[in-house]
């Protein structure tokens, strides 16, 4: 009997110890709360990573836009220094030596459809004012025709003739006359 009593005590003690051990661990509600906390931390970390990646992508895109804008401005500055086409006396035909310059302008205008130009036609002082206005217009239109044939939109181009009114070089020398027979591409 005593063995039986000892066995009962041992079984009862083991049961109590097992119960005590089970009660000392986290409850199902505590485990669920911990899982929720971990999931929220992971979600927050993923959101922070997504926001950081989005900011990185936006910064990279802004950098690329700025580089393109800088390249565009550099090209525009270079073109502003190569903006004059000279013509022979009493002619409105673009000389072959200026086709490379006009091609650069046309390529820039095609690539930058928001950019507009005014082509100013000029003459030297020989001839009547009426004739020179008409000749200046023909010279400006010759440049406009080159641009249109290259693919520049007509809405990007305006033509103005100054005739002899706005000389580049003052004087009545052959050099002055040659410098004044011109069309000038002016960016707006």
Automatic annotation (TrEMBL):
Name used for this protein in its record: Peptidoglycan-associated lipoprotein
Spans traversing the lipid bilayer: none
Main subcellular localisation: membrane
SUPFAM superfamilies documented for this protein: OmpA-like
Domain OmpA-like: 74-188
Record-linked HAMAP family: Pal
Residues making up the signal peptide according to the UniProt record: 1-29
Cellular compartment(s): Cell outer membrane
